[in-house]
Amino acid sequence: MQAILSAAVGVLMLMIASAGVLAQDALVLLKRQTIDLGQRVHTLDLADAKGAFRALRIKAVAGPLTISRAVVRYTDLTSHLEDRRILLLTGERTREINPTTEGQFVESIELQIVVAPGRRAEVEIYGRQNTTEAERVRQDLPVVSEDRDAGGTGGGSTGKKKASRPTVSRSVSPEPVQRAPEVAAAEAPVEVMAGASADAGQPPCVAENTCTPVRVFFGTNRRRDDLPSRVAFSWQDTGATALGSAVVTVPRAAKRRTGQILTPTWWERTVLRIPAAGDPARHFVIVPNLLQVYSSEADFLAAVARHMAQAGAYKDHAFIYVHGYRVGFDDAVFRTAQIAYDLGVPRAEDGVIEPFGTPFLYSWPSAGQLKDYAYDQEKARVAIRRLRDFIELVITKSGAKQVHIVAHSMGNVPLLNALSQFVGRDVAGAKVSQIVLAAPDVGVNEFRELAEKVKSLASGLTLYASSSDFALEASRKVHKDEPRAGDVVAGRPLIAAGVDTIDISQITTCYFCFGHDEYVEQSTLLNDIAQLMRAGIRPPHSRTQNFKLQVDGAESFWRYQP
Length: 562
Known about the structure:
Elements: H1 2-24, E1 25-36, E2 41-45, E3 55-62, E4 65-74, E5 79-82, E6 86-88, E7 106-113, E8 120-130, H2 133-139, E9 143-145, H3 181-187, E10 192-193, H4 204-207, E11 211-224, E12 233-251, H5 266-270, E13 285-286, E14 292-293, H6 297-309, E15 317-322, H7 329-342, E16 345-346, E17 353-354, E18 358-363, H8 373-382, H9 384-397, E19 402-408, H10 412-420, E20 431-438, H11 444-454, E21 460-465, H12 470-478, E22 488-489, E23 492-493, E24 500-503, H13 522-535, E25 547-552, E26 555-560
Parallel strand pairs: 11-18, 15-18, 15-19, 19-20, 20-21, 21-24, 24-26
Antiparallel strand pairs: 1-8, 1-9, 2-7, 3-8, 4-5, 4-6, 4-7, 10-14, 11-12, 12-13, 12-14, 16-17, 22-23, 25-26
């Protein structure tokens, strides 16, 4: 009898212990996001989730939606595929996805949706975590009690049991600031993204003071071709303009030359196992959940206004960058961010670089390949009208008081032709201050004709010419050695009335290129552009002493002489 009693007590104690363990498991809300059911793939970034999780579940806060497959990716580079069709009605949750005894750190979850045009749904992602209440309060994560109603054969839960009301952290938050309705509307998140909610925060490296975020607003007529983790654009022409923005993190501590864009090396990728996207503490990184495509022009302009209000010492300035031949979309975003950062000034209070003004990029569909010069040349001209409309949008509606425009190589083709269409039109808005034309890949005669038209549109028109630009070398081969406007032939660059022409062959215009690591005296060129944009100082020798005036009869130009 005593043995039976002892055994019963042992079983009871085991049940109590087991109940205690189960009581420690909770569902933690990791992300809530509205998704466009007309878009097939959605990647939800879960990298900010604190702690390891034993399983995931998806809830349709507002449905219905049908998931055709789900891929969970973990920080150790493993993944789990849930290859089944799941129908979720409003309020339903999936059964547990990839339940494990040991928790795993989650990177993201990719959902493939059965397309339903013109509809939206809201989902929540939960993780099951073994944690104490004290840990939950410290982590400031909302939790709900675990229910056991998801074990059926269907995709969603039965919905018969309701989760308990979320328990939030007891940390004290400030009282909300009361704003006028029009101010609140202007500050509301309006972005439509793939991969994150519209009000997603800055990446961790910002809080850790290891990087500086640079937001780039863009227009592009490239076809959208998303990566698993974020929005992306291809080399193909979509026939329409998409408006969006991207955030690039620039590392602060990494050793870097002016003009250099740090990306992961082979050694870092293969030996150090740094992801191909890069480490924000070492590299330029496009933040996946902050690369956004806006649903309307009004949303785009509202985001621009919010950024411009906090853009620092040069918040009234904006610049538009138009890339050249053999440049992909990501490369163009990196270069625009790098220019803004390198033109920036340190803040007085902490010395941190404050990027210059509000940077804009227009990215036309370059194929990004050396062999595709003819394709790029065609697409550069196809983009003229859309670039014109984008420039007009920035000038007339962005709120900037001064707009500068920079184009490199083949990007001068759509730029000059687009600007020529403003001649004779009454376009109210910002003043076009400086137009910078770097090694224009434009025929000499066409350039002179276009320059004559557009020189009256801006306060200054500056041409940087070079005999050592790789894009012009490719162009000369295609055009049977016919000189281009950015060439320096027999020691003499193109001279056009109303244009400040500067021969910078000893510096190289590949400050604007991508993928080149050799930079010689780039600080000279950067300083010159900075003085142009910040103060409009002209002529060139009055802002840079190494630019020497060269007089050739009735014509003159400047040459960099170290």
